[in-house]
Design goal:
The chain is of the alpha+beta class. The chain has three helices and seven strands. Strand 1 and strand 2 form a beta hairpin.
């Protein structure tokens, strides 16, 4: 990667001494303008609630804080990114599935699960039933379910 000072020398040399058909090799870093506003979609994420805090279902070290945007580049074939559901109905259905799954709660004690409304942006990969995105911003909590109570209600 060339820094602006060296890039300026190369661009000037090409423009002044290069052949007429040569294109200028790129822009200076200072000339690049990132988008002023990230395009965002609303999606829904199911999380563990432990001690009043929100954590990933699969990575106990990943905490989600309302109002704090997270970044992890989304990669194809489920290799990276933040996963969420495109509709509140799909998120609620998954919330219920997780609450009923006994094997799911053996790894980490999970007294409650929650459904968060999120804004996602950056690269978004649509897997049909769920989305992977580079950016995830938890906006608000929509629903909390007590896992043990939900199991008893659902099996009755």
């Amino acid at each position: 990667m060339l820094y602006d000072d060296l890039r300026r020398v190369v661009i000037t040399a090409v423009q002044e001494h290069g052949p007429a058909w040569a294109k200028a090799p790129g822009k200076l870093q200072a000339e690049r303008n990132p988008p002023t506003k990230l395009v965002a979609l609303t999606s829904y994420k199911v999380v563990r609630v432990i001690g009043g805090r929100f954590f990933s279902l699969y990575d106990p070290d990943q905490e989600y804080i309302l109002g704090q945007r997270l970044k992890q580049p989304a990669k194809p074939r489920h290799r990276a990114g933040f996963y969420s559901y495109p509709t509140v109905e799909a998120g609620t259905e998954y919330l219920g599935d997780c609450a009923l799954s006994t094997s799911f709660h053996r790894e980490v004690a999970t007294p409650q699960l929650a459904l968060l409304e999120c804004q996602i942006g950056g690269k978004i990969i649509n897997y049909g039933h769920k989305l992977a995105s580079t950016y995830l911003l938890p906006v608000r909590m929509l629903e909390v379910r007590d896992v043990e109570r939900w199991k008893h209600v659902a099996t009755a």
